[in-house]
Amino acid sequence: MNKNVNTISGRLSLRPPQRESLEILDRITEIVPPSKTPDVAAALAAITSEYPKVTAFEREFPSVCFALATGVGKTRLMGAFIAYLHLARGVNNFFVLAPNLTIYNKLIADFSPNTPKYVFKGIAEFATEGPEIITGDTYDKRSLFGDIYRVRINIFNISKINSEVRGGNMPRIKRLSEYIGQSYFDYLAALPDLVMLMDESHRYRASAGIRAINELKPMLGLELTATPFVENNQGAVPFKNVVYDYPLARAMADGFVKEPAVVTQKNFDPSQFNPAQLEELKLQDGIRLHEATKVELETYARQNECRLVKPFVLVIARDTTHAKELLDLIESEKFFAGRYKGRVIQVDSSQTGKDEELMIEKLLKVEDANEPTEIVIHVNMLKEGWDVNNLYTIVPLRAANARILIEQSIGRGLRLPYGVRTGVTAVDRLNIVAHDRFQEIVDEANKPDSAVRLTQVILDPVTDLQPTKTVISQPTIMARLSGAATTVPPGATPGRAVEPLFKTEQERNIAEIAVKVMQQHENLPQVKYLQKTDMQAEITKEVTAAYIPPTQTEMTGIVTKPDIAAIVAKATKLVIDQTIDIPRIVIVPTGDVTSGFNSFTLDCSSVHLQPVSRELLIQHLRTAKQEFLQNVTGQTQELRVEDYIVRALIDFDDISYDDHSDLLYDLAGQLVNHLRSYLSEEDTANVLQYHQQQLAALIHSQMQLPEHRWEKATGYKATVSKGFSALKENAYTASSKDEIKLFRATLSDPSNIKRYLFGGFVKCLYESQKFDVDTERRFAVILEDDGEVLKWFKPSRGQFQIYYSKDAAYEPDFVVETNKQLFLCEPKRADQLQNPEVIAKKTAAIEWCKHATDHAQQHAGKQWNYLLIPHDAITGNMTLEGLASRYQV
Known about the structure:
This protein is an alpha/beta fold. Helix 8 links the parallel strand 5 and strand 6 (220-225). The longest helix has 30 residues, at 275-304.
């Protein structure tokens, strides 16, 4: 390796991906020495032989692309490239191309000596006299006959050299200069050692840009971009000349940029708010998060005696009118008592003249801790080239799909203020406040090809799916008995120890016998009864009788007599840990199912809703780690609290406000009085605001149906035969190529979810599970993330015997055990909740829970509850407790 690589890497403190890129340039210039008249075909063959992903230069000269994620340091890498080519290969002339005016101005500043981000700082050869900087604004004001050994860096905007300009006129750079006898463009094209560096090179793939670059005839092209593809009607088309690929997911994993996180309120339901209320709520929570971040940054700076970083909030508006409305709101007295007046700037095309100059001046100084701006409102101006490291909170208020929200947000805010991670989460995190888009963004981030997941942008050709095969999903207890390794996919947090619980084949054989013996004692009231002294003695006796010791020829490696009692005790603990006490209760309806309507006084006896916590939930997009920000208060309220309910009631098609206003306010008043009987006035308003749709549905159901139920059987007969039940094996059909998918992964086509088998669980009682719809997968994510949940599983057919008619049995979708309760959970499409069959199943399940609770309470067990949950309520910011507070029947 050329010694200059080590020297430059050390002096410029290059990060590993920057150094690797420099090493690749060193190797390329060794096997294909730069030449003004290269054999392009031979050069491509030589480079492809060592870097097979380079299949074409896509230029008329050798050109390779270094695809580095935003925030890793592409500009510093360009400086390293120039220093290397000058010191190691004697190159003196460089042409740096920018895609727009913002990046053009930034590059000029970064390549100019005595500027804060000077790219050659530390290079001795440029210490006394930096390179000569020639720009698109100064090239015709300089002499061409200076020191021929001095490095010359030409920095131009692509619009300055494009062959096709507005009006058909030739660009000024191509016009004849009497002073030099040719155009400056022709002068550059004639240079024997011109090297082209293309920043954001995906912007130079249009025909005019390619033609202009080719006409300059550089001997080598070095392209840099974070997005090595171009978009067309068929989608993203990857570059063919990528020689180094370092995507954002790797940059995040290696700690070179902030961790992006999406933020909402814990157990938040956006359907309870109109657009204006939701917008103001997002702004308020964004500011609260900003203030918390500000404290964290100041604390870090004081504790570590480093410079203070002033964070700011970026608010993305729909248009210039919306931006002005937001500016007026944020600076008004009603928004945090006018605290942010004079601390907000509006950045969009509506600014002109002196206002525009002042706006740009403030924007360029937003990193300055002494500059007052804390909130930047913009529409669509801040794209590539706006290089700041103190953006910490983004509040998107413009409609955009989740992929665009993620890509634009992380493109602007991932740079680290200190250049490295600090280890303080709040200092190392970028927050995207998206109450109404939380689940959508989480799902998008979990897709394998998302910016936060994709570890390789330029992919090898994708092969066809392999045929499907049958996979047996055993209960986890069986895998632990057999000593099989966990099936958790790579990258997932392992849910169980990979080491076998029983280390010898002899121990495993005895343990398997013990488990089978324990299954014969399922008539015990609960599984914990297996640990009673008399039961342990009886099980040990039965296992000893059933165990057949190995013969003399089978005793290889067996040197001691097994301690059957100890093995039984260990197996018993495993069974208890991997069992939910599901009593075998047979529920059979008797008589006919009846329904009808009776007039009633509103029954509020089942309403015990509690105020919803206004904690902010912050979920990291890459790791799925969740955090909470406490003590969030304040909310816009209706003048009359009954209006929360009345407003929701009149949304039902069969309720007319004009015909029923007196009744609606009477019923709403009854409900409000009930809430006030156990809540404060503030908490009453909170419950009405956050649960208005659910409470309205309760009132509506009582207006339309029998006193408590939509439909119910005349009666039920219940028989309890077992205290707990062993889990059954599941036989699943799955793809042979990809048997196990990480359950957090968002599918590109959720309609095909039944094809896949999912794993990576920590709390599930099966090693793998299948889901019928994506809502079930999301619910599993909630269960895995909820600290109160101990165990869960999806029951196999026949696990329950709950008959909702004389011929049809009901199998709940999920069984869950928490620290305090047990649940049967049924996620269901929202428009099917009042389906007669769904109601019949619900009624039978409630009856089962009643008898299961009676049985459990006789033995100090936990209460059983039934949850019928609409699909659109299952989002990543919810907890099981939050769902239960709304949907427990």
